[in-house]
What does this fold into?
Amino acid sequence: MTDNNQFHQITQPAPDEPQPQTVVCAEDVVRSVQADFAERQRMRRPYELSWQLNMNFTMGNQYCAVSPRGAIEQEDKYFFWQEKQVFNHIATIVDTRVSRLNRVRPRPVARPFSVSESDINAAKLSTKILNSVSDKLHLSELIGRATVWSEVCGTAFYKVSWDPDRQDVQLSVCSPFEIYPDSNVTPTLEECASVIHAKVYSAQDVKDTWGADLAGETVKVYAIDGAQSVGGMGYNSVVPSIVQEGKKDQVLVIERYTKPTQQYPNGKLEIVAGDRLLYMGELPYMLGEDNTFCYPFVRQVALEQAGCFWGTSMVERCIPIQRAYNAVKNRKHEFLNRLSMGVLMVEDGSVDTDSLQEEGLSPGKILVYRQGSAKPQLMDSGDVPNDFTYEEEQLLKEFVTVSGVSEFARNSTTPTQVTSGVALQLIAEQDDIRLSCSVDSIRNCIKRISQYVLRLYRQFVSAPKLMRYADGQNSAEVFYFTGSNIGADDIVFETENELSDSLATRRSMIFDLLKAGVLSDGNGKMSAATKSKVLSLMGFGNWEAAQDVAQMHLARAERENVDIDHAEVLPVDDHDIHIEEHTRFVVGRDIDGQSKQYRNKVLDHIAAHRAMQAAQQAPKIHQGE
It folds into this structure.
């Protein structure tokens, strides 16, 4: 923690001769950060207006626009009888895309650096850590929250940091309103020279986190308001909208991250709140390759924009279609109102127009008109033009074309002219193709988050740390590790495409492999270990008691591989499973001076299994004779 009156010395390293130290005043740093933040706010203003407009349209406030003054303004009715209804197709498109993207949860697996046993064990440990952290941090829920932001606004961010109080990794989702790059045309986060994270905290949170006792003030934040009214002739309804409102007793904390340069080889972090400098120093986390310092943020986009830091949203593309669709539907309803209610023509002075305007032509009404005047009559409004229906159908097709979400995916109904199963499968594959950009972004984020988590543990965990790992098969394991045990942070995924690799398709593929005999031996039989793995892949886990025992034997054999000196051959062992697992361990192990001795112990253990298996099978052979 630093005080506002303290000075910080920043030294430029020189290989040959010492250089004079540069003394930086805290007040100058505060003014520099605040001026930089104000300039970035001005540069990012057009993007913020676009995000606000997208959020309004998604929630149903679709009679608003960006005014020339640079603000979101509402559109009013021109006439009292004007229809101003909202027929929100954007919300269903966003819901469908988010629902399909929420299926993208690949399981990260650490890949060993080599085939040596130490690297393989380090990779297994890293995979267990990632599985444990995923459950502890509720990673799936955080990814779903970030996906909503990216689908509506185009961009979302994750912040991976270390909590010194809990001595553990923490992960949070940052909306695009919190991140300010140094340039909006920088294509990636890593290429930005600096990044600002501005977030509003309560005064008490600032005191607890940074130890600074600051007076809270009223800060403008974005909030949801339900004051905008829509409706038609004679009725109104309220829809939510995004507005700015003041939040009391808050403090705006500005964190400016500067990437490593020649002057600052470990980067720089400056944290400012109000007129106080809360922290100044090098970047805290070695999250880059080869233990280098980098930003603790991960960027997720819905669709990439060429030469732009911010991604684009499908909502932005659908807004013109939504405006046109609302206009067509409302004009059509106005036409129907004229047909159903009628437009009455009366001669001037022949009837009491005030009474007629208030009461209308109710059933059984006695209409009195002046004697000798023309008889009141309804104007012939004609029929609803077919152009309305044609334009409505074309706009619905444009929703599908622009959004990439077909009626098959959005409404769960098959097209009327499509009855072939192959054709339906092609439609589903086309929907997946249109989502591939968003899917790749989510997968890259999960991979980057997994790498950052392992690197944070490797940097900060010096004493043994206890973690719990659940394998999803009704069993759990408790293990210890230190940062030095984490030697693998090369992350791969078990599946290539989670949209197409569903549980049903996986089961179908396994059944095809079983029919083809690929999973059986030369005699057409399947080992108990293979049966257990097949059931796990099919999603049944330990489905039967027999498979529970097989899984236990497999786990015991794996433990014996790690500690062969204390391994013991028991009469109740399933020798086939143990021999297969120990043989896999021997074949996949590098041979050097020490490991050769260990391998011989494993071979002796395998021989003991074979001898006991032969002894147990001998009485059965004699009985058969």
Q: What stands out?
A: The longest helix spans residues 26-59. Residues 432 and 499 are 7 Å apart (CA to CA). Residues 1-21, 542-547 have pLDDT under 50 and may be disordered.
